[in-house]
Write a structure and sequence with these properties.
The complex is a heterodimer of chains A (401) and B (157). With 401 residues, chain A is mainly β. Chain A is built from six helices and 20 strands.
Amino acid sequence: MNSCMTAKPGLTHRVFSCLLSVLFAGYVLNALADEQPAFSLHGFGTLGAVRTNSDEVEFVRDLSQPYGASRSWDARVDSVLGVQASWRISPQMEAVVQAVSRYHYDKTFTPEISWAYLKYEPSPNLSLRAGRLGTEFFMLSDSRLVGYSYLTVRPPGDFFWSLPFYSINGADVALTLPLGDHLLRGKLFYGISDEKIPFVDKQWDLAGSRMVGGYLDYQAGGWQFRASYANLLFKNDIPIEGLLQAFPSIAQQSAAYLTMNNTRTHYYSLGAVYDSGPWQLQLMLNHVVQGSRAFESSNSGYALAGYRIGPVTPYFGYSWVFSKSHESSLNPLTARLTAKTHLDQKTTILGARWDVARNIALKAQWDGIHGEPTSVLPYRWEQPGWGGSMDVFSLTMDFVF
Amino acid sequence: MSLKRIRYLLAIVLLALPSLPAWAELVVVVNTRCGVAAMSRNEVINIFFGRNRQFFNGIEAQPVDMLDTHPDRARFYQALVGKDLADINAYWSRQVFSGRTHQPAKTATAEEVIKWVTSHPGGIGFIDLAKADARVRIVYELKPAVIDEPKRMKIEP
């Protein structure tokens, strides 16, 4: 726990200490507790191994990871362990802390506090949360790390690679409105990031970047439809001073041209999910409009279908992502740096989930990525000769406890 | 095995089929004072999946589930949404670890379900039809997912 706190000082630390004191208060007030235990401890995890058939790039789960897999099996990409403690302080009030250890920006598995919030429910269908919260830019994005909760080995990369944002310090409000026996649900969130994203051999500090967003969700029997919107107002520039210094005459104007400071990126998405009987179907689309010239705006989506046969659920999916190249750039240097954020590829996904025992699932998956050689944003350390296509083989064991 | 013998065995199996009562009916029961008389399948799903926490009249729903070890749990979700327990547990892991909603309390026996339902104003649970008595009110009957379901006697509560 100490390492979590030293690794993430500042607001997180304060939120965490505050929650600890509330938790203690909850313990004292335990007399209020109903038959349900006031305190509960749960966890989730994945042991994973992944390899590709290419040495020209390193395959990562998303851009929060600095190194990834190539021709030899790699256990860092998908392995994760999370522990969640929750305390029901009163029927309306709950405190939750979740710590996660996964391979991330600083090349370590140093645990981080991914969630630490107080939830207050003034009425059964209205919830208010404040503290450290998972981001829900797109459907299912706040449970991306809980492999046991979904069908595939990992959320389709073409859709989620560009989303290395996991937690914000802020608040959200969620409301459910029954319409006959259908449900309309909405959520609004606001928060400030303190995460870091690896950038070449440096780290891009997102601290101070503000996120705001929300969604509307309609549930009709086994069908669920969602439209969501979020935006991110960046605070800090990408750490490219080192790269620019080699070209002193154009360094300053290039830095100004590629600035992220005070630029706003917009995330739009639509999702439809059918989950009933043996079928699980998902269709998701997103549209990302970048505010800075450092990145390219993109469109992406995926379709996924799974059908359960006994304990095994084979699945098939197809995902895609395309970004729009900037028509012109300030100079060849900025053009070259922006080209590093290009995306143009499609992926065929084939795999199976085997629910081998209670709360344990084994998965095997093949991803056939077909892209242009220019499609490099999703990967790390691309080498000359990268052709844009490769096969990815994954094996995981997911569990919850 | 002679053809005659196979026919004989087949006849026995066919005769036995309609009288197989292994899949007795499960019913959803509520507290008799909660003001709910009947529910639709979607309403039952919404409450047991934690999506809706209120009955139509605004009273807070307080669902009670059963432990995985009790056969009624698998039967209930199979009949309600056609899902295996692994799917149900995967669903709940998504809810719990994203802090959306917490899982209902779980009990080990039908008698404990009845106790929960009668002691909570918005109590709602599922039990075998044969165990439902005047202490609770049946608001939904789950038909087992069987094609050409044999007709059986209705027991009026």
